Structures are given as structure tokens and as C-alpha cells.
Amino acid sequence: MTVVSVINYKGGVGKTTVTANIGAELAYRGHKVLLIDLDPQASLTFSFLDPSQWERELADDRTILQWFGTVLNDGGTAPLDRYVIAPTMVNDIISEHSAGRLDLVPSHLMLTDADLDFAADLGGSRFQHGSPRFLPLHRALASALAAPAFEAYQVVLIDCPPNFTMVTRTGIVASDHILIPARPDYLSTLGIDYLRKKVSELVTDFNRVAAGKVEQISPEILGIVFTMVQYSSQGPLLALRDFINHPATIEIPRFATMIRDNKTLFAAAGEQGLPAVLLPNANINVQYELQQLTSEFLAKIRP
Description:
Blueprint: E1 2-6, H1 15-28, E2 32-37, H2 43-48, H3 51-58, H4 64-74, H5 88-95, E3 101-105, H6 112-121, H7 134-138, H8 140-145, E4 155-159, H9 166-173, E5 177-182, H10 186-190, H11 192-210, E6 220-226, E7 231-232, E8 235-236, H12 241-244, H13 246-249, H14 263-272, H15 284-301
Parallel strand pairs: 1-4, 1-5, 2-3, 2-4, 5-6
Antiparallel strand pairs: 7-8
Helix pairs in contact: 1-15, 4-6
């Protein structure tokens, strides 16, 4: 199993689009993939489920919010598998092509409440290292994914919120890699180096507390994926190229594949419950880029 957190401090950068499409394309190719939605906006969840279905079948007791509640109640360990669902529409398409599968742990619009509860449990919003709950709560998601119920999954993608609160920290601690989607503009690239510093601080703090007690962590930044890129006949617009070259100036790798802007296609994907990469009669250029991005992603996570 390879676990990857998808995160950027800036919202609206295509984070959920990247997560949903890489996950769906991997499953279409025969992989068993688990998506975990840690974002209280629940955009990943609603990419696969109708909101009325979510409200009717899942909101009260089958989302990550309820799982975090059990984590806080039992001291840091709680089974996660009962919160896993298999979205029907996307898996019907996948099953016609391969033995792959795409499963989802859905989010909840009230997930911000979990962060408040975490902070209270740890003695305040600074996540005190001396708290006896520091390690079990930070490791809650990692411990859950280590259960036998998750052995069949080859890739886990975690859609993180655009912040670095406790919910996000559980995702980073559980991850082998970090993927950073970004638009090629000033605000989307501004926080990338700061995000790297926050990840480094978390790794340092966690490993200091974990020394001799539990396995240490070392999540690697896979790279930056540029999304919503506008093209001319000569390639990306000239005004975007400085931003596209920005990762090199801060020594963070960048994916060669970029995803072009196509609001119509991605809006339709959300409405139909299928990621753009699997939509019939969709823009072939965008679908090709999503397929290439998935191939590049696979190459980067393989040892």
C-alpha cells in the first residue's frame, strides 16, 4: 500500500479533481484504490455521490466525522473499514474494463468540529507534545490503515483540507508521499514553500516524540501538479510560465504533465458522479493529460 496526501494551502486549485481522476484512472487500470475525504467541503465525496443520497444513507453514521468521534472516545484506535463505501456508478464503469475497484471514505460538512475536539483533547490548539494522547491521535489514521481490512488496497489517496489542523496532520502522518496541486498563479504558488516547512516541522516534532516508541515518519513530496492551465498555440500562456517554473526556484519537483483549464468538462464530471477521465465523449486532450498524469504518478511512487 502506498498512501499519498493531496494538499495545498490555497483552495480552488484542483485538489479534488486531481485526487478523483488519478484514483479513478488507477482503478480503471486494475488497481484497488481507496479515497479518503478529509476536507469538510466534501467535494471529493460529492464527486461520486448525490448529496441527497449522502444525506439519506451516510451523513448520520457512515462518514469520517463519525470515525474521528470514535477515535477521540477510545483513545486513538478505531476500525475504519465500516466507513468505506463503493460508489456504484464509477465502479460499474471500472468493472467493465478491469478487476480494479475504487472505494471511498466520505467526508462530512461538520468535520471542522472534529478539529476543535482534537485540540481540546490535546490541551489546546498547539498540539502539545507532552500530551499522552499526542502519538495515538496523530497516528489514528495510520493505525487504522494498517488493519487487515485494508491489505488489498494498492493506493490510498487522501484529499486534505487547505489547512494544517489536526485532521490534516493525521493524513500527513499516515502518508508515504505528498502531492501538491496548484494553479499557475501568484496566490496558488505562494504557500507551497510554507507548506513544505509545516510538513518538516510536523515530521521533526512527531519523530522526536515517537523515538523508541513507534515507527518514525518521512513523507516525501512527490511534486507539484499544475492545473487549470490556459494554452495558446505555442503552449501555456506566456504570463503563466514564471509560475510554472517557480518549483525549481524552491527546489520542489514538478510533474511534467499539466492539466488544462476546462470548466465545462469538470463541472459535468461532478454532476454525473464520474471523474472527467472516465466520462464518455469528453475532451480528449484533457482526458489524455489525466491519463498521462496518472502514469507519471505511478512512476514516482514505485520504488
